[in-house]
Amino acid sequence: CTQDRCQRLYLSGNTRNCFLTGSPDSYRNFIGKGLRCLFNVPNTEVYKNAHHSSGRFCFRSSRPLGEKITSLQISSVGQLPHHFSAWNIQIIRSFRTSPSFQAAPVPLFWIIVKPAQKLFAIILGRSIRNWWKALPPNKQELFKESARKNKWKILLGVSSLGVLFVMFYFTHLEETPITGRARLLVFGKGHFRELSQMEYDMWMEEFKSKMLPETDARYQVVERVVGHLSESNKDVPQVSALKWVIHVVDEPGVNAFVLPNGQVFVFTGLLNAVSDIHQLSFILGHEIAHAVLEHAAEKASLVHFLDFLSLIFLTMIWAICPRDSLAVVGQWIQSKLQEFMFDRPYSRTLEAEADKVGLQFAAKACVDVRASSVFWQQMELAETIQGQPKLPEWLSTHPSHENRAEHLDRLIPEALKIRESCNCPSLSGPDPRLIFKLNMQHLLESSKDQETPNSTKRDLSKPKLDFLHT
Fold first, then answer.
1. Is residue 91 within 8 Å of 465, Cβ to Cβ?
2. Which of 275 and 5 is assigned the larger pLDDT?
3. Which of 153, 216, 395, 422: disulfide with 6, CB 3.0–4.6 Å?
4. Quick one: pLDDT band at residue 90, thresholds 50, 70, 90?
5. Which of 81-90, 241-250, 460-469 has the highest mean pLDDT?
6. CB count in 10 Å sphere of residue 180
7. Separation between Cα atoms, residue 279 and residue 18, nearest integer Å
8. β-strand partners of 183
């Protein structure tokens, strides 16, 4: 990391923004097409009046992002003026980054063949069951006796099949770029380059009337952030090998995704959602990390490998279960076990890895990396105020907001050392994590003061809470 790559970045844009609520219909449309959706934002919101401070919360700007352009140094703490008027804060119900839906689909052949494979396994298992039931009792006994006599041969055959799967797994292991983690990679990079281009064409057709021009201030903000991230990390071969092309879509949904071929899509809803330029840099760094680490190909490889193994169990379930209804239940249990024991934990691992690498990318770009954990604390606060039940992390494809913030807090000291080694300007002003903590304490105190003796349940629809001024 050299000083010329760790230069200051001057970005134009109003950093005092607010979370916007996306359309549920458009969100379902995106998910149905396999979009890597940065946030899952239902159309439910709670409005809060608050005084704006430098605590990096979610603020509605008094001016649109493109109306007035202000210069911001990314090497600074990102403090805002000391005097603030009241701002409307939208607390959004749920926020998620990078769900299990990958930016690029699995190879087209397996998309077509996968349902046929499962159907074949079900038909085969059911045929074996019906064939066994149709056998006379004496022939059933003969088959059982033959199986007992040849049990070692049967065991040898099953063991050989298991050895083949193990050999296939270990012969397709590769080292993950940057982190060096061993991972299964069945599909080649060429497959995903072709499919990325196909998906890119699909999204361009979908959003052709909603693309912002390059002269738009919001486009320029994203272009400068991505450009600075890629320039500051050009020593990473996977970053310098890709041509990062920016597309800003005029959509209220809080979404962003990066295709494996370097096509970056950012919705204007995301630009309104982030509290400052540092959070935007970290989020885009996270998405770029997914592309650089080839997580789409990795996840598709794992799913393909597990699905192939599951065909054996699926055939056995339909062959052993005496009735179709029991076989359906057994198939559902088998699919859920695979999902919660392999798919979702693996997805959480990829998200944590993208957070780590994205934080390193941001640190080399002289971003205030401390804002990354504040972002997830904001998400946790939003769900708490909304009164949403907290689901166990093992039910999700993503780490919980709280665990994600804690994980980033553990990584921040290392990221600050990386930032310092890049000769970045020193961070001035208070730690944004401390400011957020003080603001939350004041928010809780204010909420307690507003509760009246006659009210047993506080109305959350229009609370009036003030933040500390700093």
1. no
2. 275
3. 422
4. very low
5. 241-250
6. 7
7. 13
8. 174
**At a CB cut-off of 8 Å and minimum separation 6, what does 409 contact?**
373, 433
Dihedral (Cα; 43, 49, 53, 55), 10-degree rounding = -40
Question: Using one digit for the tens of pLDDT, what is the confidence trace for 421-448?
Answer: 998 998 877 888 998 888 888 888 887 7
Report the C-alpha gap between 154 and 339 in whole angstroms: 30
Task: Give the model confidence (pLDDT) of 20-68 as tens digits.
Answer: 333 334 333 433 343 333 333 333 333 333 333 333 333 333 333 333 3
Say whether pLDDT at 263 is over 80.
Answer: yes
Measured distance CA(323)–CA(32) in Å, rounded:
33
Residue 214 known to be catalytic: no
Query: Strands 182-184, 173-175: parallel, antiparallel or unpaired by DSSP?
Result: antiparallel
Q: Are strands 263-267 and 245-249 parallel, antiparallel or unpaired?
A: parallel
Q: Looking at the DSSP assignment, which residues form a beta bridge with residue 71?
A: 12
**Distance linking the first and last C-alpha atoms of the chain:** 35
The single residue of 231, 287, 353, 383 carrying the catalytic annotation is 287
pLDDT in tens, 306-351: 888 899 999 999 999 999 999 999 999 999 999 999 999 999 999 9
